[in-house]
């Protein structure tokens, strides 16, 4: 029990004492997570939309595969990215192992299947209802994808948040490809793992509380965006 | 409407099976210019399917849909369809029409202007910024007509457009259909509503269990049905 109380006290002290190291860690974590999610959306939203509206041989196998990839173990992804980016690996010449860039790549690999699979499901359901109407209006399948993504924006946003949650929560991949180097690649999750290992439970818990609070704030913000998004977006929507 | 006409439309020997049932059975039909053709028949006769095949939404198993003058894709651009249950995008009333007009390759400013004109046409001018799905059933159907009209179609497929509406809303839809004809547009309207058929039909096709039992001028068919099925239907004694 005392650990918990101390944890809260530590979290409070660190946050509102504007501890520079802590803020550095928080900001790096958010930057890496955010970049990974953006990258995943650039791939996963169109890919999920395409899987929803196009029919081709092997489509079901691809869907099963993408769904299965949602459960990729982060340490395995970390290991594979490590092998690819290490000096002797195929992309070793990029020299980005143990940098935030490598962490973004690893997390994007974890998040992309989530965004793709959930988007595919959302858009496929919409497509069933919209197909005849959109086809009647002369919309090609390709042209229908942005229309459907925008019409399903509430659900799609939830899919993106699920991806963000995955990125923010994982430790296995970033610790392998980032190396948990202080002031360089240390994120909230790797710092928690480190401090717990050192027996510095209060600090670890403090970081944990910060992480959970951020997740709640982010979801609350997304919820407010969703609530406000309906009628006002009309004119923006007309373009898609 | 200066572009060359896509009419007459000829359906040649159209057959369609679905789930082991013969939905359409060797249907031949001719649709003339600037007239309202009513496809009349009891529920389950295959009226909706016939319209969807003619509009190109469903491929028939055999038979051909021939548009005079223009091949499939070019002819499709001159058609619009209104479904029994309106499928509206999760956007404002205006954005729904703008989206449809933009699909024709019209520039945005022009599309917005056209959308406003279309809303005035169906009497929804003051509802432009409302979310489309907050409208009543009758208003949603009027919006569907506005969306169809905004694309300046020569031919309109109207699939039981008043079947789920109350009498007042049905009446306002009928006024729109009359106006469309007055503008020189050609409508193909499916209905099981005998009274509506009598009010609107120039030509009539009587569909029963997937077969076109009678076709010709409405006046003649109403006065002198040749088949016992149509005679029974006109007396309100044929329900399936």
Task: Compile the SSE list and pairings.
The complex is a heterodimer of chains A (240) and B (240).
Chain A (H helix, E strand, L loop, with lengths): L1 H15 L3 H34 L5 H11 L4 H12 L14 H37 L4 H11 L1 H17 L2 H7 L9 H10 L3 H28 L5 H4 L3
Chain B lengths: L8 E10 L2 E11 L4 E5 L6 H9 L6 E6 L4 H5 L2 E4 L10 H10 L5 H14 L15 H14 L4 E5 L7 H16 L3 E6 L2 H7 L2 E6 L2 E7 H6 L4 H7 L6
Parallel strand pairs in B: 3-7, 3-8, 5-6, 6-7
Antiparallel strand pairs in B: 1-2, 1-4, 8-9
Helix pairs in contact in B: 3-4, 3-5, 4-5, 5-6
Biggest sheet descriptor of chain B: 6 strands, mixed
| Domain module tally of chain A | 1
CATH topology of chain A: MetI-like fold
Strand order of the largest sheet of chain B: 5-6-7-3-8-9
- What is the top-level CATH class of the largest domain in chain B? Alpha Beta
The CATH topology assignment of the largest domain in chain B is Rossmann fold
State the share of residues found in helices of chain A, binned by percent: over 70%
Major protein interface: A-B, 24 and 30 residues
Number of distinct beta strands of chain A:
0
The assigned structural class of chain B equals alpha/beta
Number of distinct beta strands of chain B: 9
Full CATH superfamily name of chain A:
MetI-like
Shape designation of chain B: globular
Strand content of chain B: 25-35%
Helix content class of chain B: 25-40%
Rg of Cα set of chain B:
18 Å
Estimate what percentage of residues of chain A fall within beta strands.
under 5%
Tell me the name of the CATH class of chain A: Mainly Alpha
Number of helical stretches of at least 4 residues of chain A: 11
Total number of helical segments of chain B?
9
